[in-house]
Structure formats: structure tokens, C-alpha cells
Amino acid sequence: MIKVLLVDDEPFILEGLSQLIDWEDKGCRIVKKAVNGRDAYEYLKENEVDLVFADIKMPVMTGLELLQAVREEDISKAYFVMISGYNDFHYAQQALKYSALEYLLKPVGADGITDIIEKVKNKNRAESVHDANEPEVVKAYLIQNIMLLFGRRFKEKHIDYIRDNLHRYGNGDFRYVSIGFGDIDTLEEQSDEETLSLKNRIYSRIRTLVEEDSDRLFADIPGYTDEYELGFIYSDNPASGFGSDIKDYLGSLSEKLKSVEPESKIVFLAGKKVEDLTKLSLSYSSAASLKPYRSFGETKSVYIYEEDVQISDLNVFLCKDELDELVSGIELDDKDRINRSVNNFFDKINSSNGISDKALSINTNYLLFRLLHLAVELDESINQEEVMTYISDNALMPGEGRGSRLHMQQFASEYAEYLASLRKNTSGGILLKIEKELEENYAENITLKNLSAKYYVNSSYLGQLFKKRYGISFKDYLSRVRIDKAAVLLLKSDKKIAEIANEVGYHDTDYFIDRFIELKGCTPAKFRKNH
User: What are φ and ψ of residue 168, in 5° steps?
Assistant: First the structure.
């Protein structure tokens, strides 16, 4: 019930207000009838009230003086309605200055009172919803501020908001952690609904595990995290409660996840450590650079930028400038530049009286990483597994004839031509070819993985192409093609439902009927009858 306080120095007006409407029927209860502002002021100091109707001109303390005192002393949050026999702008202006809800002229009618009660109810409902959703509101605005950090468009007020609302903010170092889940080929075969369901489940699992630091976990940062990724902000600072060893923290988190999600292949990619939150975009980009690096070496559940990418041993001999020049020659398919860069590389090694096995391994891995990255830069459209196979078969690995100056020149020239062929295969014509293939072979067991292998395109990229072109996943697109074909067969033949289901690629009739209802709005039998 809304608690109402009536204030007027004229007894018959006070009694008239109390009898003007059925207050109980409107969800209100009059808790006090005060004869002046001072009487109302003393009552408000000791009692809770939701709505006050007060005359402006009264002895001892006017309605405006009452309103001013209540607001300045923060005695009550009650809504105030000022009542006056004067249509004076100055009075109304003063009432609004102290956040009066309404300014009513005498004589006050029942409709005016009823409208104000409804307005108070609506405001109370809105505040209740806001209070219930406050954590979500804070989280949403927190994400907006973090997006500004990533885009380097932040101001000091954005950092202040993050500092105030990011739990256990602490001082010191930060990292962005990308959390990938599932086998990418398997995920791309799923419908949008299945993928979203999996992502929400993983998000919920991790949210429970990180407990009070769940505000650091993000399911979606528009333009940054993709549909197969979660984001997490880690603090390399004991005061933050995480400890200083991120590898131990993520390793422990990974083990806990495996116990509840044994089938999900969850991988943590920890970006480089940055000394201040304002540089979080550097940590984000370094975490992203670990994605193609996962193709090298053993499969792990936790990757740390400093350990898996950076060359931290300053005593290791790395010919970075010469190798970067070689990569540029390969990218431009410039044979002269390639040969010159290889010669410079070997000349530098020879001038240093050879190179240790460790240094040779570092130089080789650095070059191979850069070459894979060259392929990935083609709109992420290259099948990384195929590229890695090519490199493994042809690059500078131990063996007869390998590792020589001539072999490196030959390999680099062939890789430049290989990149050119990949660029050609990833042109915009692929979707047209796949559309035609689905139109002709829709009943066969067609998967995104098969198509990506056939057209030398990364399955993730191919899945993204479908979503950009059609607005749905590959699986949903294929279902649409099959159901459309089934609809034609229903109208042009008298075949049984099960027979048609099998003919368009569905071997489970019940599943076929469910998909048909989802896309056509009725059962196959009803569709045939209606048409």
C-alpha cells in the first residue's frame, strides 16, 4: 500500500481530500493528516511515507519550506504534490526546484488525485525493475567502457568507472584472457541455437567457478569476442586475490572445467602482461595472436603469451630483421628480394661462427610462425591445418638437403606461389559453387568440414560467409534447402512422409517433421492438404 500524508491548515479541506476518493481501493492508505508544515516535518522524521499532498501557504511552516527542508536534510524520499489556490509561476518553479512530482491548483478533483497515484505506482514499478537489474546494468556499462579501452578511445572517466565497478580492481598488472571452447569444425556444423546454447552453458560454468570475480567474465564484447569465445580480465597482483602465477590459476580453472565439461575442448589464451588497464588493448591483441600459434607444437589447454610467443632469452641469437625481410619478399612474391634476404640471413649466421641448435630452432619457429600468419591474414580464410601440413612437408626441418641456403630460397619461392594459389581459391566465387552443390546434392551427408576441405577454405571462415550472406548458420541453411525440396515433393507427388524425408536427407522422420513445422509452420501432412 502507498502510504499517504495530507497536509493543510484548513480542516474542511483536509477532510475533503481524505474523502475525495476511495484511497484503499486505489491501493493507498492515509497514515497522517497534518495541520501545518512543522507537524508534517516532525512526522516525516520518524515515519516512512511514500506520497505527500501539501498546501503551499500555511502558518508555522509553508508547504514549500517543508519540501525544501525534507530534500536538503534528506529526511524522506517521498513524492511531493504541492497544492495551491494561486496560479503563480514562481510557486511552481520553486516546487520543481526541489523535485516536486506535481503542482495542482485548487479545487483539486478526484481525477487529478487518481492520475497522480497511477504515476507513483508506475515510478515504483520502474524503480523495482531497475533495482532488480542493477547488476546487469552495471555489467552492460562496464562492457561499454572496456570496449573503449580496446578501441583506445577512452577518457579518464571510463577508467574511473572500471576501477569502481570491476571487483577487486587492485593496482598492478592486467591481462586479457581469451577463452575458446569446442572443436571449431564441430561448432561450425551446429545451428545458431545449438552454438548459443553451448556458449551460455560454458559461460555459466566458468561464472560459477570464478565466483566473486564473475564481473570480469564477458560472454560478448561486440566487435571483439567472437561467437566461440569468452573474455576474462586477470590481474597479476596478489592484492587482487588471484595470485601472481596466471599459469597455475588458469590450469586449475581448466581442470575444474574438465570435470564438469569433459567433452568441451576449452582453451585459455592469456595475452601479454600490461602494467596498466589503459593498455589492455595490447593484451587483447597479443591474446588474439596466440590463436594461429596453437597450430604449432603440442596441444595444450593453457597458452601464455610470454612463454609461447615471445623470445624471452636475450642470449638466443635471432636474425629478426633478415627473416622479416624474407617474409616481406614472400608476401610480394618477389624472387630477387627472397634470394637476397636468404643470403643476408646465412651471411649473418656465418659471420657469427655458426648458430647453436637452440638458436636455429628459435629462428626456424619464428619464420614458420610468420609464414602461417601470412596465410591467416587472408581474411582468416585459409585452412590452417592444410598450411601447417604444407610447411611441415617442405620447410627447414632436419634432414638430408634441408636447412641449406639453396633449400631455403627454393622453399620461400614455392611458398610465395602457394600463397598466390590460396588467394585465388578464397575469392568470392566459393559461395556460388557451394550453393550449386547444395542444390544438387542436398540429400547427401554434406558437412561444412567436407566443403572446407574441398575448396581449401577454413571451416570457421566458411561458416562466417554463410552468416553474412544468409543471416543463418550453415546447418540452418542446409535445413532450409532440404525442407524446401520436401515441400515441392509433397505437392508434386503422393509419396509417403517417411519416404520424402529420406529422399531429402532426413533418416529420422520425427526429426524431419519437427524441422518442417519449424520452417513452414505446420506438419507436412497439413501442408499437403492446405495446398
Answer: 50, 55
Helices (H), 276-404: 280-293, 305-308, 320-332, 335-351, 357-376, 384-394
Q: Concatenated DSSP letters for 14-26?
A: HHHHHHHS-TTTT
Report pLDDT digits (tens) over 9-51.
998 889 999 999 999 999 999 999 999 999 999 999 999 999 9
The tens digit of pLDDT for each residue in 416-464 reads 887 776 666 554 567 777 888 888 888 898 888 888 777 766 666 677 7
pTM of the model: 0.48
CB 92 within 8 A of CB 99: no
Q: What amino acid is encoded at 123 in this protein?
A: K
CB 163 within 8 A of CB 169: yes
Q: Is 223 buried (19+), middle (13-18) or exposed (0-12) by CB count in 10 A?
A: exposed
Cβ neighbours, 10 Å, residue 237: 17
CA–CA gap between residue 503 and residue 512 (Å, rounded): 11
What distance, in Å, lies between the first and last C-alpha atoms of the chain?
57
